Amino acid sequence: MNLNSSDFYDLESDLSNNELTIRDSIREFSTSELMPNINSWFHEGRFPDSIISEFGRLKTLGSTISGYGCPGLNYTTYGLIMKEIEHVDSGLRSFVSVQGALCMFPIFQFGTEEQKKKHLEPMSRGEIIGCFGLTEPDHGSNPAGMETQVRDDGDSFILNGHKKWLTNGTRAHIAIVWAKDEDEKIIGLIVDTNLKGIEKKEIKNKYSLRTSDSSEYIFQDCRVPKSQQLQVSGFKGPFSCLNLARFGISWGALGAASACFEEALQYSKKRIQFSKPLARFQLIQAKLSNMCTEITKGQLLSQSLALKLDNRSFRPDQISMAKMNNVSQALKISRESRDILGAVGITDDFHTMRHMCNLETVNTYEGTEDIHRLIIGQSITGKNAFV
Ligand code: TGC
Ligand code: FAD
Hints:
The protein has 387 residues and is of the alpha+beta class. The chain is built from eleven helices and twelve strands.
C-alpha cells in the first residue's frame, strides 16, 4: 500500500481503465495548473476565469449528459472528476457543480429542444456560464417560503424578487431562477442576466470559498420571455438538480478530506517532538487511523451510490446520507489535520486550513448537515420534522 494514500481498501482497483484515464487527466491538470496558483487565487478572493475553457476541454462541464457536445460519462467518473478538483479547492469544484448539475442538468432534463440546442453545447465548452437561484435572503433551508414571483403578461413573465448566494453569479450569462407563479406553483426560468430589471451584487466579505464567485440578484419588473420557461412545475424541478449536485459534493468532500489527511500524515512522519516523530505517538496514530477509516467509509458510500445513479435505482435520502456524512467527516478530518500540523497549520505553507474554511460552506450549502439528518430521519421514522 502507498502509505501516503487514503485508499485503504484499494477501491481504485474497482475502477475501469476509462475511469482511471479520465481521473488521471484531471489530476495532471490540477497538479500542473491549479495547485501552483491556488493560494494566490484564495488570497485575492477571485475565481480564475482562465481555467473555464480548460474545464470545458477536459469535459468536466455537464459530463453526465449524453449528446449536445457532452460526453455522457457514468456517475463514478463524474464523482472522480469532482474529487480531483476538490482535492485542490472546494471553490473551484463549486464552479463545475453549478455549471453542470444546477444549470446544464435542468436544461437537459426540463428544457425544450430549442433551449437545449441553444445552451448546452456552448455551456459544455464554458462559453455560456450559468448560475442557479433558489435561495433567498429570508428562505434558505426552506425554499418553499420563497417570495420571488412571476406575473403573467402575454408572451412574457414579469419577474420580481431577491435571490441570494448565487455561485458564479457575477460572470453568469444565464441564471436558472425558481419562482412562484400566480397559483403559487414553482416554475423555472432561464433568465438572460443582461435583461433590464436585474441588479447584481457580488458578496465579497467571505472567509470561506474565496475562489468562488458568490452574488445576489434583485429582480424588479424584469420581463422574461415565456419561451425561456422550463417544462417542469413544482419542487421536483429544483430538488432533482440538487440530487446530482449533492452526489458530486459527496465525492468532492473526499478529495478535500484526503488532501488534509495526506498533509497531516506526511508531516507527522517528519516532525520530531520529544525526540520522536509525531507519527510514533499513539494519540497521533489514533487520529490518523480515524481519518483514514472515515475516508474509506465515505468512499464506499459514494462509489455504491454512483452505481445506483447509473442504474437509476437511487433514492434522494440515500444521496442525503452521502452528502451529510462525507462533508461533516471531511470537516472533522480537516480540523484534526490542522491540529496535527500545530502552528504551521495556520499558514498557507499547508493547504489544510484553506480546506477547513471551505468545508464550512460545503457543510451548509446544498442542504445543511442537519437538514440532511432530518431528511434521513423522515425516511427511517416516517415522521416529517419539517411540518
Ligand atoms: P417536500 O414536500 O418533501 O417535496 C416537495 C416536492 O419535491 C419533491 N422532492 C424531490 N424531488 C426530487 N429530488 C428530491 N431530492 C426531492 N425532494 C423532494 C417531492 O417528491 C415533492 O414532489 P410533489 O410532486 O409531491 O410536489 O418538500 P419540502 O418543502 O417539505 O422540503 C423539505 C426540505 C427541507 C427537504 C427541502 O426544502 C430542502 O432540501 N431544503 C434544503 C434547501 C437546499 O438544499 N438548498 C440548496 C440551494 S442551491 C445551493 O446550495 C447551491 S450550492 C452551489 C455550489 O456547489 O457552489
Ligand atoms: P438557514 O436555513 O437560516 O439555517 C441556519 C441554521 O438553522 C442551520 O444550522 C440549519 O441547519 C438550521 N435549521 C434550519 N431549519 C432547521 C430545522 N427545521 N430544524 C433544525 N435546524 C434547522 N443557494 C442557491 O440557491 N444557489 C447557489 O448557487 C448557492 N451557492 C452558495 C454558495 C455559498 C458560498 C453559500 C454559503 C451558500 C450558497 N447557497 C446557494 C445557499 C445555501 O444553499 C444556503 O445557505 C443553505 O441552503 C442554508 O440556508 P441559510 O444559509 O439561509 O441557513
